[in-house]
Every structure is written in structure tokens, then in C-alpha cells.
């Protein structure tokens, strides 16, 4: 038993050191000044109002950029239309259009994207979630890498923020666990990564994979889009830009459901990667080492986990939540492992107000009420 703990503990420690290295290297990156600014169509699929929704969409309209358009896809009766109309009034010189989405798909967001892509005027497309807040200079930074024809798409890290206690707990996990794993991906040769916080690509590459319709049945639309585009040999490029999302889950039940849905999504999308996730849970192995009498290794694991969490969560993302929750960083791993075990089983997820079934290849099936 001690030998097993030693092996598992050192493997987990090695991962933390590698994630720390990835965070440091990303922090030290000096991206060249953008030298290309193509016209870009920003596609925003909308489903209701998230917290700080207006601030998020306003940050896009306020971009100083030569030429862009902002397209919002909404379903009939969506309350977000009022905020979009307010944005049109505030920025009369920015082409802002409201597109009534009618395409029905298992993944409703992708159905909306099908309609938005049809209306987009430009050859460079940018998709991000409705609650994403972006800094000034965002458009220059995420479009410029596509000047290199060998790059398939550009994506961004994101900083999670929240108001509720449960939401801050989830944000801690995203900022100190999920984001470091994203930083590790390109270092180990994974090319098919893409985050819903930003996906910027050429229309010709989208058309080559069959358009958005080709991923309309899948739950992990961002991953599926990146997988298909990069399969042609064009890797994803991780921009140095950090955007922000505000988690709106109000309580622990909502956070749990969100986390389990996320876990099952990863399981059906990349089972090999999912099986290896416990290696990243250094806090879990630290607890087992303490219980097994290996105090020195447990302390090393806890220290490494906190340092890596700070390097990514504060050093890269500048998340104030991470600074407030420093002692809880290793404890997140106990929660994450519980979610991981739950995610191993079951094929039901709750997405917005619908109950869905996941197939083994990540497709969605709507369950009848």
C-alpha cells in the first residue's frame, strides 16, 4: 500500500510541477503586436439574461477595431432582446443585428449558430458565450494569429467570477484546476482544444468540416468544433488574452449539477483523458498520504497544489477569488474527485431546462417529459 501511495503521490506531484511550468511559460509569453486586422463577424448565441449580461455584450461593441459586426441569435420571446436594443442605441455606428433563430437542433446553441453563420458577412468568424466579458484590444489579439494559414483556430483562457458562495467555490476550481490543465494541453501536443470563451476561425475552415450543422447533435460543441478543424492539420492557438465569465449558479445544487454535466461531457468526448483526471487531484493524494503516514509527501503535494493554483489562478488569470480561497485549493480536489466518480456513471444531464441523454460518442438525445 505504501509503495502504491508513493508512486501515485509522485506522479501527482510531477503533474503539478508540469502545470506550474506551463503557467510560468504562459505568463512569460510576449506576443508580437497584431499586424493583421481582418473584418470579423462576432456570433453571439443568446439564451436569456446572464448576470452582468449588458456589461459583457457592451465590452464587444466598445472594441476599437477597423471593421466588425455583432450578431445576436435569439429565440422568440427572449428577454435579452431589450438589452441588445439598448446596445444598438448606445452604439449606433456599430453594425449590431438581432437574428431570429429558427433552426431546431439537439444542441440549441449550435442551432442558433447555424442561423448566425448564414447571416454573417465576413470570412473570419468569432464565437463566444453570451456572458463573456472581454478587454479592450481583444479583437486584434484573437484575429491576428489567423494571418498564419497553418493555424486553424484561436481560443482564450477565461477567468471565472461569481457572486454566490457556491459560485465562488466553482470559480476556484475552474481557475486553479481546469485552467492549468488547459495550459498543459499544448505543451503535451494536444491540438484539439477549444474553449467556449473564444473560438475564432476562418469561414472556409468551418465550411470544410460541414459547417455548424456537423456538430449540432453534440453537447461539447466547442470541443467538437476544435477537433474537426484541427483534424485537417491546423492546430489551435492559445491566445495570451484572458476573458471573464460570471458564473450564475445560485446554490450548491446547481453547481453540483453543472459539474456533473461537465464531467459526463468530458467522459463521452475524451474518455482517455477523463480516466487520467485523478492524477491532477493532488489534494486527494495528499489526504491519502497523510492517512498512510507519509506526512512529508502529503505536505509536498499540498504545497505544490497551492503554488500551481496561485501561478495559474493569480499569475495568469488575475483572479481575486483565488487569493481569497488559497487554503481551500487542495480541498477542491476532494470535491473534484467526487464529481469524477459520479461522472463515470450515468448518461443523463440537465441542460438549462431540458433533460438530455448522452450517447457514447457525445451526442445529445432529448428525453420526453
Kindly describe this structure.
The chain has 369 residues and is an alpha/beta fold. It has a domain at 2-26 and 258-343. It has helices at residues 2-27, 53-61, 81-90, 108-119, 138-143, 165-187, 203-208, 221-230, 252-269, 271-275, 282-291, 295-316, 320-324, 329-343; strands spanning 40-45, 68-74, 96-100, 124-127, 153-162, 199-202, 236-247, 348-351, 354-358, 364-366. A 7-stranded mixed sheet has the order 3-2-1-4-6-5-7, with helices on both faces. It has a 3-stranded antiparallel sheet with strand order 8-9-10. Strand 9 (354-358) and strand 10 form a beta hairpin. The mean pLDDT is 93.
Q: Could you give the order of strands across the largest sheet?
A: 3-2-1-4-6-5-7
Percent in strands: 15-25%
What is the general shape?
Answer: globular
- For the termini, the CA-CA separation is 48 Å
What sequence of helices (H) and strands (E) makes up the elements?
Answer: HEHEHEHEHEHEHHEHHHHHHEEE
Q: Treating each run of at least 4 consecutive H or I residues as one helix, how many helices?
A: 14
Please bin the fraction of helical residues. Answer: 40-55%
What class would the helix/strand composition place it in? alpha/beta
**Tally of strands:** 10
Oligomer status = single chain
Low-confidence stretches: none
Rg, rounded, reads 21 Å
Average of per-residue pLDDT values:
93
Sketch the major β-sheet: 7 strands, mixed
Amino acid at each position: 500500500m505504501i509503495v502504491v501511495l508513493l508512486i501515485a503521490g509522485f506522479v501527482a506531484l510531477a503533474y503539478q510541477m508540469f502545470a506550474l511550468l506551463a503557467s510560468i511559460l504562459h505568463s512569460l509569453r510576449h506576443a508580437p503586436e497584431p499586424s493583421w486586422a481582418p473584418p470579423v463577424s462576432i456570433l453571439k448565441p443568446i439564451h436569456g439574461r446572464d448576470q452582468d449580461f449588458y456589461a459583457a455584450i457592451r465590452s464587444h461593441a466598445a472594441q476599437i477595431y477597423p471593421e466588425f459586426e455583432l450578431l445576436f441569435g435569439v429565440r422568440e420571446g427572449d428577454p435579452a432582446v431589450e438589452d441588445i436594443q439598448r446596445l444598438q442605441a448606445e452604439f449606433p455606428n456599430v453594425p449590431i443585428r438581432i437574428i431570429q433563430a429558427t433552426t431546431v437542433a439537439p444542441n440549441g446553441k449550435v442551432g442558433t449558430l447555424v442561423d448566425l453563420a448564414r447571416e454573417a458577412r465576413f470570412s473570419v468568424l468569432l464565437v463566444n458565450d453570451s456572458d463573456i466579458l472581454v478587454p479592450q484590444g481583444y479583437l486584434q489579439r484573437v484575429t491576428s494569429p489567423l494571418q498564419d494559414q497553418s493555424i486553424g483556430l484561436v481560443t482564450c483562457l477565461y477567468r471565472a467570477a461569481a457572486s454566490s458562495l457556491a459560485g465562488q467555490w466553482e470559480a476556484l476550481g475552474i481557475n486553479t484546476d481546469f485552467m492549468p490543465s488547459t495550459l498543459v494541453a499544448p505543451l503535451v501536443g494536444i491540438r484539439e482544444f477549444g474553449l467556449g470563451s473564444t473560438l475564432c476561425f476562418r469561414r472556409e475552415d468551418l465550411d470544410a468540416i460541414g459547417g455548424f450543422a456537423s456538430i449540432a447533435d453534440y453537447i461539447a460543441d466547442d470541443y467538437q468544433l476544435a477537433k474537426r478543424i484541427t483534424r485537417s492539420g491546423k492546430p489551435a492557438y492559445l491566445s495570451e488574452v484572458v476573458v471573464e465569465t460570471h458564473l450564475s449558479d445560485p446554490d450548491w445544487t446547481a453547481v453540483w449539477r453543472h459539474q456533473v454535466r461537465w464531467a459526463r461531457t468530458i467522459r463521452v468526448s475524451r474518455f482517455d483523458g477523463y480516466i487520467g483526471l485523478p492524477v491532477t487531484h493532488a489534494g486527494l493524494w495528499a489526504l491519502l498520504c497523510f492517512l498512510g503516514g507519509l506526512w512529508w509527501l502529503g505536505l509536498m503535494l499540498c504545497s505544490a497544489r497551492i503554488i500551481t493554483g496561485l501561478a495559474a489562478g493569480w499569475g495568469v488569470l488575475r483572479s481575486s477569488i483565488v487569493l481569497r480561497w488559497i487554503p481551500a485549493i487542495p480541498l477542491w480536489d476532494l470535491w473534484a474527485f467526487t464529481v469524477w466518480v459520479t461522472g463515470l456513471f450515468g448518461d443523463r444531464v440537465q441542460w438549462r431546462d431540458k433533460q438530455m441523454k448522452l450517447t457514447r460518442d457525445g451526442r445529445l438525445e432529448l428525453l420526453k417529459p
